[in-house]
Write a structure and sequence with these properties.
The chain is an alpha+beta fold and 321 residues long. It contains nine helices and 16 strands. The strands form five sheets. It has a four-stranded antiparallel β-sheet with strand order 1-4-5-6, with helices on both faces. A four-stranded antiparallel β-sheet has the order 10-11-12-13, with helices on one face. Strands 7-9-8 form a three-stranded antiparallel β-sheet, covered by helices on one side. Strand 2 and strand 3 form a beta hairpin.
Length: 321
């Protein structure tokens, strides 16, 4: 049996359309808004909209978050769909979670759902999600068993829903890797410390580095934060600073490119780098490193950057696939 979880693209065809018509519009809380569409509406509107949602960054339309859709194939035929929400809001914590999924009715009872969910957890890991939430109707025993079979932990049962957390970090192996290879011949990154996750503060695991010339001369600092959440959307996955005497040599750009390789090794599909809107030197470095500008964001009053006088952050994103 060959199985594969395939990311939605604008080129998905009739096989996916037919599967979506077989899955009800409301499948135990998962909304399948492709059901009932004509094939032309599916190709020209629905796929375009879903693909655009996967490229979004922050919260949009007041409450929605970026979402990537996948289709689970068994021996070349699609048998299920998965929705992955890139981060949680209070609304999603109450209903929806990170993952929504459904298996087409005629293929149920064959273990496909369990395999599909396991593959979805690997994709969560690539998004930097260490632990994913699923919210399941209390009467949906098949889905509950599926989540528990993938190592799920029941947090609570409330208002007719079962809240289950699934570990994604195991898909990454060790949290911190050997970094002695972070060297491009001109600069090298020497790890000075690694910081653990502190969930209550929305702090993710992080590397701290000295940026050094090939002869070992220290010329600056940088860091890499492993994950994605609302705090990191503002603060970024990567930070850097070059000592004044060594500026003007593109060393920060070179350090970012090395960190991209490390982030990809950790399974991150993309990273954010942010800066103050008026910091031309910084955003020119970010752009030179191949990052795409995605917008401006207001800094919350409880953020350290706000306390240091910043009010807006310029947000850039780098795809690592």
């Amino acid at each position: 049996m060959k199985t594969e979880l395939v990311k939605l693209t604008k080129d998905c065809g009739r096989d996916v359309y037919d599967m979506l018509q077989s899955i009800p519009k409301d499948e135990n809380g998962l909304m399948n808004d492709a059901n009932g569409l004509s094939y032309a509406e599916y190709k020209n509107v629905w796929l375009e909209s879903c693909y655009a949602d996967s490229l979004r960054t922050g919260i949009y339309d007041g409450f929605k978050v970026p979402q990537t859709m996948f289709f689970f194939y068994v021996d070349g035929a699609p048998v299920g769909l998965v929705k992955l929400r890139h981060f949680l809001t209070d609304k999603l914590r109450a209903d929806g979670g990170n993952i929504g999924y459904a298996v087409r009715p005629e293929t149920r009872g064959r273990g496909y759902g369990r395999m599909m969910l396991r593959a979805a957890l690997e994709e969560c890991s690539k998004l930097g999600i260490d632990e994913a939430l699923v919210t399941i109707n209390e009467g949906n025993t098949a889905s509950i068993k599926m989540s528990l079979a993938n190592g799920g932990r029941i947090e609570k049962i409330e208002n007719g829903k079962v809240y289950i957390w699934l570990d994604c970090s195991n898909n990454r192996g060790n949290i911190f890797y050997d970094t002695s290879w972070l060297n491009d011949g001109e600069i090298m990154l020497k790890v000075t410390r690694t910081d653990p996750e502190i969930p209550q503060k929305q702090f993710v695991p992080a590397y701290k580095f000295d940026i050094c010339l090939a002869d070992g001369t220290k010329i600056g600092k940088c860091d890499l934060r492993l994950g994605h959440n609302a705090k990191l959307y503002i603060g970024g996955n990567i930070g850097y600073g070059i000592d004044e005497a060594y500026r003007g040599h593109h060393y920060a750009e070179k350090a970012c490119r090395l960190l991209f390789k490390l982030a990809k090794k950790h399974g991150l599909g993309y990273v954010y780098i942010t800066c103050a809107p008026g910091n031309a030197a910084s955003y020119k470095t970010i752009e030179a490193a191949g990052c795409r500008f995605v917008g401006m964001a207001q800094i919350p009053q409880d953020d350290d950057m706000y306390k240091n006088g910043m009010r807006l952050a310029k947000i850039y994103r780098k795809e690592l696939e």
